[in-house]
Amino acid sequence: MPHTHHLKQETHSDFLKQGRIDPITGEKIEEGHTIVICAACKSAFFVESWEYLGETHCNQTDTLSEIPVRKSLQLMAKPLEYLPFYFKKGQYILDRGDGSDTGFAAITLLLILGAIVTVPLVITIAVFLGSIFAWPVGWAFIGVSGYLINEIIQPYYRGKRKFSKITAKKGFQLAVNMKNQTVEYMRKNKKISIPFDDIKHIKYYIDYIPFSECGQYLQQSVSLEIMTKEYKKTRLYTFLHNNQIPQWSQFLEDLPYHLPVLNQK
């Protein structure tokens, strides 16, 4: 049975001040609601939302027996440690489906564009080289250009990127700096800090990367979004081996509890 908490102003005022949002319904969590808190990411859910998720979140079923209190930032000022894996800016988006509908539309568009470009080309070749060369060259042009254009736009109409390992040369390192009360990411000694007090929420989700994409790498992808109170978004993504997931969980654990941290899956 999950641990549930019936919220009361006199005993849970600190938690209620955080203005938490149920990730499933999008409703604000207020006094009188009964909630469940995921033990892994500290996201709070209405009981009904927890049941809707099959009483599981972050690939586990544990819930907190007590509502977490705000951490003392001074006491938690431990030495700064960056995560041992690297992030890139943007999002790694897995295939959202078979892409049949959008794929058909994209292929149709390619054929239309190919026809628009090819007809003048065929006429030009026919004038200078003769009609015997025109159509074979035209069809070859359609095939090659269609393939190249499809390779370029495929990630957009299928919502899918090809897997590539993130190296130290191109990646960012990420850390929670409790002493400075910031989330930091750094690349080649260039450091960017986001103060806790400026953060509106942090969202993340984890996806399994199919073998067809990552080959010998048995990994998960993690997409992270940090939204400031000025609605400025910082989006990063990384790839994890299964044995690195505890380090990611520790990063989430190190974040102060007053920050809304929402797992989007």
Explained architecture:
The protein is an alpha+beta fold and 265 residues long. The protein has three domains: 1-69; 88-94 and 163-263, PH-domain like, CATH 2.30.29; 100-157, no CATH class. It is built from six helices and eleven strands. It has helices at 9-16, 47-52, 100-129, 131-157, 211-214, 245-254; strands spanning 5-6, 34-37, 44-46, 88-89, 173-177, 182-187, 190-195, 199-208, 219-228, 233-241, 261-263. The strands form three sheets. The chain has a five-stranded mixed beta sheet with strand order 4-10-9-8-11, with no helix packed on it. A hairpin with a 6-residue loop joins strand 2 (34-37) and strand 3 (44-46). It is elongated and about 90 Å long. Mean pLDDT is 76; it is low at 72-76 and 95-102.
Assigned CATH architecture of the largest domain: Roll
- The total beta strand count reads 11
Strand content: 15-25%
Helix content: 25-40%
Please state the overall shape, judged from the principal axes of the Cα atoms.
elongated
Key attributes of the depicted protein:
3 domains; alpha+beta; elongated; five-stranded mixed beta sheet; three-stranded antiparallel beta sheet; PH-domain like; 265 residues
Give me the secondary-structure topology.
Blueprint: E1 5-6, H1 9-16, E2 34-37, E3 44-46, H2 47-52, E4 88-89, H3 100-129, H4 131-157, E5 173-177, E6 182-187, E7 190-195, E8 199-208, H5 211-214, E9 219-228, E10 233-241, H6 245-254, E11 261-263
Parallel strand pairs: 8-11
Antiparallel strand pairs: 1-2, 2-3, 4-10, 5-6, 6-7, 8-9, 9-10
